[in-house]
Amino acid sequence: MAERALVPPSESVPRLTRPPSPAADVGASAALSEKQSPLLPSQQGGVQPDHQNEGNPATSQGVMMLQLLERVIELENWKEGKGLIVCGAKNTFCSGSDLNAVKGLGTSQDGVELCMFMQNTLTRFMRLPLISVALIQGRAMGGGAELTTACNFRLMTPSSEIRFVHKEMGIIPSWGGTARLTEIIGSRQTLKVLSGALKLDPTVALKIGIADEILQSSDEDQSLQEAQRWLQQFISGPPEVIRALKTVVSSGKELALEEALETERDVLSTLWGGPANLQAIAKQIKFNK
């Protein structure tokens, strides 16, 4: 698996050291991509590859999915965080499923269990109180394309590509990608993208609303720096305020109106009269004198 997570340079998050237990695998052994651990935050705000899980494809891919869940749980407990960038290794965001692993998932029940596991994991990821960016370098295919939709924003390098190839595998996107893509670009465009298994280069992706911006460089390090600068404009400010904004936007998208309004009131009560609010008021008073 090629996804890794980046936190902005001013942020930090501890790295999990306990390996996930293969015994917890519920049949979720199809691959997202190459043999790397996803969503691996860095102590220094950089990107750390985690080459591991060589060997049996079904076992290694199941372990990687468990690692993805562990990274999400880790991020749920990261109370100081504001932003997150998900990117790939060797200029590949995510190259799709390992067919050797998929062969081990031959029954309908296997597919449903995998679906439920990944829907749960990516929904939890989407609901994190962090502003998330998918930095798409190279190809984002199949499950990788679905993963990009769980992020708030998508930045593409000039040579990158997004493609939902599920139709060609005789299935549908089932990790929540269909619902999320419909919310992002609407039902008509989603139907075109999925039924045509369209290859979305950066220009097309930007035009239909999947991509938020095309970066200048395709170089792995330079594009990562561009993505950091792009994200910084949205996470500048006290963590409690940025996290609160993400929370109320998520509730507005997912909840009924009355529930969303109640969430607004609840979240506001944690900020009004708080340190960030009082400091901002004091600055304004000083500025106006």
Shape: globular
Q: Output the helix-strand order.
A: EHEHHEEHEEHHEHEHHHH
Q: Approximately how much beta-strand content do the residues carry?
A: 5-15%
Q: Pairing-aware structural class of the strands and helices? A: alpha/beta
Helical fraction: 40-55%
- Mind telling me the C-alpha Rg? 19 Å
Count, helices: 11
End-to-end CA span: 56 Å
CATH superfamily of the largest domain: 2-enoyl-CoA Hydratase, Chain A, domain 1
Biased composition (Polar residues): 34-46
Catalytic activity: (S)-methylmalonyl-CoA + H(+) = propanoyl-CoA + CO2; (2R)-ethylmalonyl-CoA + H(+) = butanoyl-CoA + CO2; (2S)-ethylmalonyl-CoA + H(+) = butanoyl-CoA + CO2
Region (Disordered): 1-58
Protein name: Ethylmalonyl-CoA decarboxylase
Account of the protein in words:
This protein is α/β, with parallel strands linked by helices and 289 residues long. The chain folds into two domains: 60-236, 2-enoyl-CoA Hydratase, Chain A, domain 1, CATH 3.90.226.10; 237-288. It has eleven helices and eight strands. A five-stranded mixed β-sheet has the order 1-2-3-5-8, sandwiched between helices. The radius of gyration is 19 Å and the shape is globular. The relative contact order is 0.12. Mean pLDDT is 80; it is low at 1-59.
